[in-house]
Amino acid sequence: MENNLTSNNSNGNGRNILEVKNLKQYFPIKAGLMQHVVGYVKAVDDISFKIERGKTMGLVGESGCGKTTVGKTLLRLLNPTGGQVIFNGTDVMTLNRKELRALRPKMQMIFQDPYSSLSPRMPVSEIIGEAVREHNIVPEAEFDDYIDDVMRSCGLQPYQKDRYPHEFSGGQRQRICVARSLALKPEFVVCDEPVSALDVSIQAQIINLLEDLQHQREMAYLFISHDLSVVQHISDYVGVMYLGDLVEYGEKESIFENPLHPYTQALLSAVPVPDPNYKMKRIILEGSIPSPANPPSGCKFHTRCRFAMDICKTVVPDTREIEPGHVVVCHLYNEQGTLVEENSEKAI
Ligand code: SF4
Predict the structure, then answer these.
(1) CA torsion 201→209→64→38, rounded to 10°?
(2) What is the residue extent of each domain of the chain?
(3) Block means of pLDDT (10 residues each) for the chain, length 348 residues?
(4) Which residue among 84, 98, 291, 320 is least crowded, i.e. fewest CB within 10 A of its CB?
(5) Is it true that domain 3-259 has CATH number 3.40.50.300?
(6) Can you list the positions of beta strands (E) in 154-210?
(7) What is the reported pTM?
(8) Sign of dihedral through CA atoms 58, 219, 137, 144?
């Protein structure tokens, strides 16, 4: 599906730290004795977006929609099937191993599970400092002071540097993960569900830490989460994924106040509102998410969409820009970006 959701959101090239163009990540399905390729799982299917320096893009969608695969592919932890990832003017997908290694400190990832992503056999100073040494981030003489500074900025105390991960709580371990990434002075960080394994009170601390560090260092985040309340809090822009497609993209306010895609409307209808008098109108999605190995034809969402029309079953919808920077991929909207007349009753 051609999901060119870049639109007019760029605000000038110099402000974009990352431009993703037509990114594809297909995994082959092999079968039989000879392990012939009989099909592909299209985990990321031709998506495009941009992230400005110092801003956060939230990426939401159900489990299995391809969010984590996008994050890993951007950093070339997975080699893509196609597309471009332009980081600070450099196409990351064309770099050789040496060039990629040199770029690694600038593009980092914080993983979901602070338990399994830390080596149990290394003290904290080594966990944070290993890559600092490897990439010569600071002269050796300044190494200890630098690690102390990084620990302090992430809410850890330097006297804890000789301790091992099992001696820390879940929240502190996630702080160690943040410190490990931060120590490399990144400009762009993929945060893959960084708080979903933590208690709610600890979640707020980590979110605040990420926000503080972003303001101090002007880092950009791709914040992957299925928790829409957290995404609403931290994001400047939001992208909504369904079965490998980016179906809606825009500024946070536009997405949360005026969701256009029926899938986004259903997702947002489940976000709790802190008002005891507010009556939630939850939109229940019928059926389960189809297999990405055999996605529905036409609009991939048509098997679960309450507005599905005949055209949706056979024709892939085009991208429509409804308001500046707010784009949607759905047959309910015409070329002018307005609701198609005969569908307007359905879509309200
Ligand atoms: Fe629903 Fe059709 Fe829009 Fe897909 S294109 S979201 S099936 S109305």
Answers:
(1) -150
(2) 3-259
(3) 44 76 95 88 94 96 92 95 95 94 94 84 94 94 94 92 92 91 94 85 87 92 93 96 96 94 92 74 83 92 93 94 93 79 50
(4) 98
(5) yes
(6) 188-192
(7) 0.89
(8) negative
